[in-house]
Structure formats: structure tokens, C-alpha cells
Specification:
This protein is α/β, with parallel strands linked by helices. The chain is built from 6 helices and 7 strands; from the N terminus they run βαββαβαβαβααβ.
């Protein structure tokens, strides 16, 4: 398969790329480096990316920003960061990207445990993750040509434990092989409209 991985140079992205490149042709997209550049917060940038690379068999997105801060400190613009990037960025990847998918292709979005189990300072990020879940379940009812849309929602991954452990007291770090399997299930399975939760 020809697989586009957006955010393939990030903490989780690098691991996902290593797995899929063993048996597939991989294209990495990123905001500052990769085989092709893209800013998912800009729909014109998304269109330009697909025009450059042409059709693919699968799209995986492991990108998108949201502001982490105390609720009383969050401004309207802080909320719009997550809405524009992690929510609408991924929505636009589906909205535009399905036109560049071969029949029976798949799109895998990424969210996280905050959608179901928020922690402090994540009002904006939790809101956005939950919205992506609802979008995935709804769009799966209408998308055509055998295309499937799923989301992988992981807990705090092992590779990011040191960075985020103070935000997630008592949470068990998720082994990277379990995270990989979530993306494998989405890309190689038959599920559609699924939120693939990897929380334990």
C-alpha cells in the first residue's frame, strides 16, 4: 500500500512509520520536514499536499495542536488553536483527502484518552478530542467508495512518559507496540467509524 503519514516525525509518528514501512510505500508529511510539507490548520496547504503526491491507499494523521492551560487562563483564541488545528485540521484531511484515496482506502485520525478521562489543564484538548470522536462516528455513515474512517485514541504513551507523567498521576503508560496495533487495526482491518481506545 501507499500510505501517507502526517506527523510521521513525531514521538508516536516515528514508531508508526518504522512499522508500516516494512511492507508499504510510506510518504511522511510534516509542517517543517518530511517528504512533503503540510500545515493541517490550513485547508489550502492540505489541498496542495494532495495535488503533489496524488492518490494513496491510506492516510494516517498523528498531528494537531491544542492549548494546555488552566481553565481560568484559557482565552477564546486558545480554544481556537485546538479547533483550527487538531479538530478542523483532521476534519479537513477527511473532507479533502477522501478525494485522493483509492477505492476501499482508509483514513485514521488521532485523539487521546482526554476525550474520555480528562486531567487538569486539558479543557480545550479534551473538548477537541471528543469532537473528533463524534465526527468519525458520523462521517463513517456517509463516506463513499468503500472508504473507512477511524480514530486511534491512546493513553499516555511510554515514549512520552517523562514529559507528561506529572499531568497524568496514576495513569499507566501505554507500550508503543499496543499503540502500533491500534493503527494496524484501523489500516488493515475492516472497521469503520470506530474509536480504537488503547487505555490500558
Amino acid at each position: 500500500m501507499k500510505i501517507l503519514i502526517i506527523g510521521g516525525n513525531g514521538t508516536i509518528g516515528k514508531t508508526i512509520v518504522r512499522h508500516f514501512k516494512e511492507n508499504n510505500e510510506i510518504l511522511i508529511a510534516g509542517r517543517s520536514n518530511g517528504d512533503v510539507l503540510v500545515d493541517i490548520a490550513d485547508s489550502n496547504s492540505i489541498k496542495s499536499m494532495f495535488e503533489k503526491i496524488g492518490n494513496v491507499d491510506a492516510i494516517i494523521c498523528i498531528a494537531g495542536e491544542a492549548k494546555w492551560a488552566d481553565f481560568n487562563e484559557l482565552t477564546e483564541d486558545d480554544y481556537y488553536l485546538g479547533l483550527k488545528s487538531k479538530l478542523m485540521g483532521q476534519v479537513n484531511l477527511v473532507r479533502i483527502g477522501h478525494n485522493y484515496l483509492n477505492p476501499n482506502g482508509s483514513i485514521t485520525l488521532s485523539t487521546g484518552i482526554l476525550a474520555d478521562d480528562p486531567v487538569v489543564k486539558t479543557t480545550s484538548a479534551s473538548m477537541v478530542n471528543g469532537a473528533v470522536h463524534s465526527f468519525v462516528q458520523a462521517v463513517a455513515l456517509e463516506i463513499e467508495n468503500g472508504i473507512r474512517v477511524n480514530a486511534v485514541s491512546s493513553g499516555m504513551v511510554e515514549d512520552a512518559f517523562e514529559k507528561y507523567k506529572d499531568y497524568f498521576p496514576g495513569h499507566n503508560p501505554i507500550p508503543m507496540n499496543k499503540v502500533i496495533n491500534g493503527y494496524v487495526r484501523s489500516v488493515n482491518g475492516k472497521g469503520n467509524g470506530e474509536i480504537i481506545r488503547i487505555y490500558n
